[in-house]
Amino acid sequence: MSGEELLKIKELKVHYYTAKGIVKAVDNVSLELRKNQFLSIVGESGCGKSTLAHAIPRLVRPPGKIVSGNIFFENKDLLSLSDEDIRKIRGHRIGFVFQDPFTSLDPLERVGDQISEVLIEHLKIEKKDAKERAMELLNEVGLTEDRYNYYPHQLSGGQRQRVAIAIAIALRPSLLIADEPTTALDVMVQSMIMDLLQSLIKKGMSIFFITHDIALASERSDEIAIMYAGKIVEQGQTSRIIAEPMHPYTQGLMAATPDIWERKNVTSIPGNPPDLANPPKGCRFHERCRFAMEICKEKEPPLISLKGRKVACWLYSDENGRDN
Ligand code: SF4
Predict the structure, then answer these.
(1) Is 66 domain-assigned?
(2) CB of 242 within 8 A of CB of 218?
(3) Is the beta carbon of 286 within 6 A of some atom in ligand 1?
(4) Cα of 46 to ligand 1 centre, how many Å?
(5) 301: Cβ below 6 Å to ligand 1?
(6) What is the pLDDT of residue 99?
């Protein structure tokens, strides 16, 4: 792992063992995240992006299971750590923000006390000092100190998400994983939360951001990884991918995104993502792809490096996986 890399996911597989069969939610995913980088994982619901996010700090719960692969973070293989050691890494080195802040906030406790508790438990500091630090954290996430005494239900959705971010960054992690943190918020509040996440990069954090919204990802990320049916299908620098999306699924996501300036026609991707308990043979996108060829139905395209990004599509590689 080079000095600049913070996180390296290698050939990761996460399966869910359900009555319907084995759901391969994350299927052989490899990704890297550098220090101070904002990486967005983009895809439709059910593509495995949220499972991927939960797998990093080992938050996948049964019937889900990390089946194989490696997750190297700060030169440690997270999958080989003891339960006690991974608990220390969660919060301390890796913060997690959930889509719904109610899942991480106690409705019966004042939000300031919830931040203080994290500091007291992990840093073993005095209550008075923890309260002071909690006030600073509230300021840092754009809330006034008087919010310390509020209960979660007394705050707006955006304010609750700010509190959840304050808790997630309280111990100064180097990696913040944010799983669709703005989905339930209106556009203005969404933009403010995104500003907040971006400001954390300057404070030494890296962001692993999960979203279904390619427009949102393109505004903020250094890199984008497009995920479809458990696999990465295109990945690279945001500017390159947005200027010239190569994978037909990436093209479809962009065509389905409204643009108020260009007033372009919005076209949705036909069909639905496949059932991951029984994914189609070959390229998993072939049933929805207007460029599908015979080989697409038979053989899975390899992820190859081309034009400054990685892409998995038979339009760009021959049967042996060499670049065209
Ligand atoms: Fe479409 Fe074939 Fe490329 Fe899959 S491999 S995206 S089906 S052209």
Answers:
(1) yes
(2) yes
(3) yes
(4) 19
(5) yes
(6) 86
Regions of the chain short of the pLDDT cut 50: 1-3, 320-324
Q: What pLDDT does residue 126 have? A: 96
Q: Which atom belonging to ligand 1 lies closest to the Cα atom of 295?
A: 2
Task: Check if 313 has its Cβ closer than 6 Å to any atom of ligand 1.
Answer: yes
> CA neighbours within 13 Å on the CB side: how many for 175?
23
pLDDT of residue 103: 77
Per-residue confidence (pLDDT) for residue 321, from 0 to 100: 46
Count: domains in the chain: 1
Q: Give the three-state DSSP class for 32.
A: strand
For 195-234, the DSSP string reads HHHHHHHHTT-EEEEEES-HHHHHHH-SEEEEEETTEEEE
**CATH code (residue 52):** 3.40.50.300
- Amino acid 319: pLDDT: 61
259 token code pair: 């643009």
> What is the predicted pLDDT for the residue at 223?
97
Nearest residue (CA) to ligand 1, atom 7? 286
Residue 76, domain extent? 5-93+173-311
d(CA 197, CA 119): 21
Whether 264 is covered by a domain: the verdict is: yes
Q: How far is the CA of 40 from the centre of ligand 1 (A)?
A: 22
Query: What is the chain's alpha carbon radius of gyration, rounded to the nearest angstrom?
Result: 21
Cβ 233 under 6 angstroms from ligand 1: no
Which residues, in sequence order, are CB contacts of 324 under 8 Å at separation 6+?
A: 316, 317, 318
Would the pTM count as exceeding 0.85? yes
283 lines ligand 1 (CB under 6 A): yes
User: Residue 248: CB within 6 Å of ligand 1?
Assistant: yes
Say how many Å lie between the CA of residue 287 and the centre of ligand 1: 9
